[in-house]
Amino acid sequence: MHVKSGDTVVIISGKDKGKKGKVLKVFPKANRVIVEGVNMLTKHKKAQGPTQQGGIIHQEGPIHVSKVMYYCDKDKNGVRIGHKFLENGNKVRVCKKCGEVLDK
Q1: Residues ≥6 apart with Cβ < 8 Å to 66
Q2: CB 3.0 to 4.6 Å from 71: which of 2, 8, 32, 42, for a disulfide?
Q3: Looking at the DSSP assignment, which residues form a beta bridge with residue 84?
Q4: Do residues 68 and 10 touch, judged by C-beta distance below 8 A?
């Protein structure tokens, strides 16, 4: 997975192409991510007793990870991600365009 929870990504294909959002949840086994405000689904919820009200709920659905690209604030664009080892032996993600270290 090239993106993690909390990353800002840009959608590169599909009906929401060009939208930016924060990754809310990652499903590595299914290669899918949920991005804030992208792939909005409409769910019809039935009332659960007298306290909970039924109605139509809008929520984000998962999209394939190949449709998202990490958004670099420095470049103001979607960028590819590489990996690099630091002097202390830690493996970190880096922006392939500007070389900025993404994992602090």
Answers
A1: 31
A2: 8
A3: 92
A4: yes
**Tokens 């602090």 belong to which residue?**
104
Spatial neighbors of 48 by CB under 8 A, at least 6 apart, are 54
| Domains of the chain, CATH where assigned | 8-49+56-75 (2.30.30.30)
DSSP secondary structure of 67-86: GEEEEETTTTEEE-EEEEE-
Which pTM was predicted? Answer: 0.84
Express each pLDDT in 33-63 by its tens digit: 999 999 999 999 999 988 989 999 999 999 9
Structure tokens at 41: 């689904």
Helix (H, G, I), strand (E, B) or coil at 100: coil
Cα 35 to Cα 18, 43, 68, 70, 88: the distances in Å are 13, 17, 9, 12, 33
Q: Which helix (H) or strand (E) holds 32?
A: strand 32-35
Please check whether residue 69 is in contact with residue 9, taking contact to mean a CB–CB distance below 8 angstroms: yes
